[in-house]
Design a protein that fits this description.
By secondary structure, this protein is α/β, with parallel strands linked by helices. The chain has 18 helices and 28 strands.
Length: 612
């Protein structure tokens, strides 16, 4: 809704959130009371009962300059009744234009909008306001860095813009994690787990329907409702900390000036003493005919209005397996096409167990298969041609989800022109030896997924961003420790780990220098319902010498992330095998089995846990 209060005027267009406060450079326009339809309102309005309201029904709505141009009248004659001497649509001047009112005299001409080539004169740059920090990217890491700097009393701006996916999907402030990553993924995973629990319920005395039915639309609306609340929460936090949020694409104009490009083409410059690049990554589409035109990615899946139906997931990354897992759990026929191995970079024994568990739950796997082309049939289904074992084969699917990796889109940020070095293959920014987040240009930094060679995890980006801001603007010296970082893969049987994989430990120390304690176990919750626990497994990789320092812990089972979080803290404090063996476990829990580990792979004994 539009309104004017003590704080200012805000835009009526949904998902906009721009507000004109005192000394703001955001231009606002007010519609007259005419029979007119606001296209932006009708398109973006999530509440069906308000979609398509006319301007008369909406009374005199107020719209920011960004949305005014898209809020045209259906009746051209009605538009002509507006003041013919009205000011241009978009302004980049300190004061907003006056309200359009045909009863008043035309306003005096104002400065033209800052559009197109800008004046590169030194006097023009000298007149720009100076910011202590400009953050390019409004994801978890960038926001954490900006808010930390603001808490230290610095003038900060955040530039964030989302380029539409090939299927046209965009989202709000918060980056991948909030909108198309961790948050919606975990909710979808939980939704599928509820289905498993309802299947087990009769064994525990509950009476349930003979046929369980799931409503995809209801789930998507609930998930997106929570996502939108997080988008709004981030905006509120930035405003409360006096961080200037600019919904525009940030690029480097030169080494000390950041250019913001708005959706309407207008530009604005920010002079920055420090710049943090936190643009993250986006899904990578393979070079396959029809892939970008007909296939979706994780950018699209969590907001699909229609159920995906029979789905092919291309790739075997953690994103691919997580999506395939919850789609199967929600009742969709799901196939995973994998070129080589699952979960590259993770412990491969654990990855194989995950694949076996998913296969037992109904997910199909096409091993050693590579897509060749994607075509759309007359019935709107997708025909996928692929090679497997040297032969060309094909399959028909309702939806094809590309999850074969992610890439950093840094080529359009203007980094090369100012001397920022990026990795030639990953296109990610290279950190310096002295400071992992500092680029080859002294005052330009990178955090999160866009930083080469670092874990692509939200908590890593958040922690690195906070520590970086503290080092830049206070006397803090602490740097981000990228070692022993825990993570969880939210497949149907969750996998969590911290430290080295067994393969990496062997490569680093040698097979004769490590011991692997392991166990197959059965969660107590699985017993009454007789659920299979064939893949519930854990292992602890330890050095053989001395107190046996713990090098890595791997857990496959229910609530894996909740189990490993505490062990990750212990490993940061120098956890040893002796410490574990002298700790009292919590009974009866799955985590307790890690405390009770005592059989090594080297012994060759049966590692199946028996008894209470």
């Amino acid at each position: 809704m539009a309104g004017r209060g003590k704080t200012g005027t805000w835009c009526s267009a949904p998902n906009c959130g721009l507000t004109r406060y005192r000394n703001s450079d955001v231009s606002f326009f007010r519609f007259p009371r005419e029979e007119a339809r606001c296209k932006k309102w009708a398109i973006n309005c999530r509440r069906r009962d308000l979609a398509g309201k006319t301007a008369l029904e909406m009374k005199s709505r107020t719209f920011c300059a960004r949305h005014f141009e898209t809020s045209q009248f259906y009746n051209p004659e009605s538009r002509n009744r507006l003041n013919k001497n009205a000011v241009p649509t978009i302004f980049n001047v300190p004061n907003p234009p006056p309200r359009i009112d045909s009863r008043r005299k035309p306003p005096k001409p104002r400065a033209p909008p800052v559009v197109g080539p800008l004046n590169r004169s030194q006097s023009h740059f000298d007149s720009l306001p100076v910011y202590d920090l400009v953050v390019i990217g409004g994801g978890s890491g960038g926001l954490a860095c900006a808010k930390e700097a603001a808490d230290l009393g610095k003038k900060v701006a955040v530039l964030d813009s989302v380029s539409p996916s090939p299927q046209g999907t965009t989202w709000g402030l918060g980056g991948t994690c909030v909108n198309v990553g961790c948050i919606p993924k975990k909710l979808m995973h939980h939704a599928s787990m509820i289905g498993h629990t309802m299947t087990d319920a009769p064994a525990y005395g509950w009476t349930t329907p003979h046929v369980l039915k799931h409503n995809w639309t209801d789930l998507i609306e609930a998930v997106q409702g929570h996502v939108k609340s997080l988008n709004w929460g981030h905006r509120v936090q930035l405003k409360s900390k006096n961080v200037e949020y600019v919904n525009a694409l940030g690029t480097m104009w030169n080494a000390s000036v950041v250019r913001a490009t708005f959706d309407n083409g207008s530009l604005k410059l920010f002079k920055a003493l420090n710049v943090v690049v936190a643009v993250g990554t986006r899904p990578r589409y393979p070079i396959v005919p029809g892939a970008e035109k007909y296939c979706i990615s994780s950018d699209d899946l969590f907001s699909m209005s229609e159920p995906p139906g029979n789905t092919l997931v291309v790739g075997a990354s953690y994103v691919a397996l997580e999506c395939a897992g919850f789609l199967t759990g929600l009742g969709f026929d799901t196939t995973v096409m994998m070129r080589s191995i699952p979960l590259r970079g993770f412990d491969q024994q654990m990855a194989s167990l995950i694949k076996d568990n998913m296969a037992s739950a109904g997910t199909k796997f096409l091993d050693g298969a590579v897509p060749v082309s994607v075509e759309k049939r007359n019935d709107s289904k997708l025909l996928v041609n692929y090679t497997q074992d040297g032969a060309v084969q094909s399959g028909v699917y309702d939806t094809v989800l590309m999850a074969a990796g992610r890439e950093a889109l840094t080529s359009d940020l203007g980094l090369a022109a100012i001397g920022v070095h990026v990795h030639p293959e990953s296109n990610k920014i290279l950190g310096s030896a002295a400071d992992s987040e500092r680029s080859s240009v002294e005052h330009i930094y990178a955090i999160g997924d866009v930083l080469h060679g670092k874990p692509e995890l939200t908590p890593v980006a958040v922690k690195a961003g906070k520590l970086l801001a503290a080092r830049m603007f206070s006397k803090a010296k602490q740097k981000m420790d990228y070692e022993k970082v825990p993570t969880t893969v939210f497949t149907p049987l969750e996998y969590s780990c911290v430290g080295l994989s067994e393969e990496t430990a062997i490569d680093k120390y040698g097979d004769d220098k490590i011991d692997v304690y392991h166990a197959f176990y059965k969660p107590l919750e699985y017993t009454v319902s007789a659920r299979s626990a064939d893949q519930c497994y854990m292992k602890m990789v330890c050095a053989r010498e001395g107190d046996q320092a713990v090098l890595g812990i791997h857990f496959l089972g229910p609530n894996a992330g909740e189990v490993i979080q505490g062990f990750a803290l212990a490993m940061k404090c120098g956890l040893t095998r002796r410490d574990v063996s002298t700790t009292v476990g919590i009974h009866p829990t799955c985590a307790e089995e890690l405390i009770r580990l005592h059989i090594t792979k080297r012994s060759g004994l049966d590692a199946t846990v028996t008894g209470c």
